Amino acid sequence: MSNERSGGCRCRQVRYTCSAEPVFTGHCHCRDCQYASGGAYSTVVLLPREAVSVQGETRRYAVTAESGNQVTRVFCPTCGTPLFSELEGMQALLVVKAATFDDPAFVAPLMHIWTASSQPWAEMSGKLPAFARNPE
């Protein structure tokens, strides 16, 4: 990647930079992402954990996801912005909340996942493939 991307929380107490292209981008409809986003789904970008550098204090909250794996939600303790998710089943990757990038316009979601938990009011145009759980 020629340009390093940066982002952070709303109050700017937590900042991050990344130096790799996304491994995956998509909309996750799992119930836990609904809680974390406060909406129908969470738009996420998966990056190699080693390519992300975080500055500032964060807090963590761990839950057992629908997959049975532990998911640790990472957020700013000052403003509450959800920033990252750490997945027990994919420890080499870091899930970054797409809207926390300084310029999230580059994000191009590839699919909807965990639509088995999708809310009936969730808007899905049919332009992206949708999977009931994780794609194979």
Q: What's the arrangement of secondary structure elements?
A:
Blueprint (H helix, E strand, L loop, with lengths): L4 E4 L6 E4 L5 E5 L2 H7 L4 E7 L3 E4 L3 E6 L5 E6 L6 E6 L5 E5 L14 E2 L23
Parallel strand pairs: 3-10
Antiparallel strand pairs: 1-2, 2-5, 3-4, 4-9, 6-7, 7-8, 8-9
Structure in words:
The chain is mainly beta and 136 residues long. The chain has one domain (5-117): Alpha-Beta Complex (glutathione-dependent formaldehyde- activating enzyme (gfa)). The chain is 5% helix and 36% strand. A hairpin with a 5-residue loop joins strand 8 and strand 9 (93-97). The protein is globular, with a radius of gyration of 14 Å. The two termini are 27 Å apart. The mean pLDDT is 93.
Can I get a quick summary?
This protein is mainly β and 136 residues long.
Give the H and E element order: EEEHEEEEEEE
Number of E strands: 10
Low-confidence stretches: none
CATH fold assignment: glutathione-dependent formaldehyde- activating enzyme (gfa)
Radius of gyration: 14 Å
Proportion of strand residues? 35-45%
Which percent range fits the helix content? under 10%
Secondary-structure arrangement, i.e. CATH architecture: Alpha-Beta Complex
> Which structural category do the helix and sheet elements fall into?
mainly beta
Largest sheet: 7 strands, mixed
Number of helices: 1
Q: Count the domains.
A: 1
Using the coordinates above, name the CATH class: Alpha Beta
Distance between the termini: 27 Å
Strand order of the main beta sheet, please?
Answer: 6-7-8-9-4-3-10
